[in-house]
Design goal:
Elements: H1 9-16, E1 18-21, E2 37-43, E3 49-55, H2 78-88, H3 117-140, H4 157-169, H5 179-194, H6 196-225, H7 240-255, H8 260-268, H9 270-281
Antiparallel strand pairs: 1-2, 2-3
């Protein structure tokens, strides 16, 4: 007769078997995770099976979301993003946030410029062509939201026409627009038809830059060659700060519907805007041809 203390093959198999026993979903120590307990039955010294448990946590099905990248100025609106990028493209002589190394004469301190009356006239002529082009594009409104920027009070075509008339009264012959102005005007026409984000970048930089650095340049040049005469180009009807704020709000509103990729594309166009406007600005230092 077999001994009562012997272990049958089935009992041996039982002792070696690993069972997975789920913990109840009603366990108050568990919230959204289900942690099963791995239960191991083993024979104790007196022949009675005991139970040892080991908690094996499961990896959550959801992973932490990657923090969203924040762009400089983004919390204040897209105009602040454009301003931030534009400031970085200035030299330290032009703006405290500037990072560009000065390479061209017009990138140095305005106080060191040597403007000419004829060169300044060419600058005004080419500037008028560009502002005329901006006005035409806005009036045409190939993209409906362009119309939001009609009659903002920042327009410069009429004031420039008055300044050119004043030049004419002084005995100067008004020249035809030169290559920098013609090239820029054509480029604006081209992108306005197919690339509204790029166009808005130029619109912003042309108007907002003129109200800041542009005014300072106009004042310094007038001191040197125009007997401190203030041109109409640097005068606005109404409160300029309020005019700027109105346009700023419209630009921010329009950009709300843009994707991040479209916003970035607009910001990347800033370099081209500076390139074209810089070539026109250089005319101030040009000599009689």
């Amino acid at each position: 007769m077999a001994s009562l203390n012997s272990i049958s093959p089935s009992q041996s198999l039982f002792n070696k078997t690993l069972f997975m026993v789920p913990t109840s979903f009603s366990n108050p120590d568990l919230d959204s995770c289900f942690l099963p307990k791995r239960v191991l039955f083993a024979k104790n010294p007196v022949g009675i099976s005991s139970v040892r448990t080991k908690v094996v946590p499961l990896i959550s099905a959801t992973t932490a979301e990657k923090p969203k990248k924040r762009y400089p100025g983004e919390s204040k609106g897209f105009v602040e993003e454009m301003r931030f990028v534009a400031m970085k493209l200035h030299t330290r002589d032009q703006a405290k946030e500037g990072e560009k190394v000065s390479k061209e004469p017009q990138e140095g301190p305005v106080a060191e410029w040597e403007p000419t009356v004829e060169g300044y006239l060419r600058f005004l002529v080419d500037s008028k062509l560009v502002y005329d082009t901006l006005d035409t594009i806005i009036a045409k409104a190939v993209f409906p939201f362009y119309a939001e920027f009609s009659n903002t009070g920042l327009e410069r075509s009429e004031p420039l026409a008055k300044d050119l008339e004043w030049y004419k009264e002084q005995g100067f012959v008004i020249p035809e627009p030169s290559s920098p102005g013609i090239t820029y005007a054509r480029y604006l026409e081209e992108i306005s038809e197919k690339d509204p984000q790029a166009f808005i970048c130029h619109f912003y930089n042309m108007y907002f830059a003129h109200t800041a650095g542009g005014r300072m340049i106009g004042r310094k040049v007038a001191e040197k060659i125009l007997n401190n005469k203030e041109l109409e180009f640097y005068k606005w009807e109404g409160d300029l700060s309020q005019l700027l704020e109105n346009v700023r709000e419209k630009l921010n509103k329009v950009a709300e519907s843009w994707s991040r990729e479209e916003k970035n594309h607009c910001l990347e166009e800033t370099k081209k805007s500076f390139k074209h406007s810089g070539e026109i600005l250089r005319l101030i230092l040009s000599r009689r041809q």
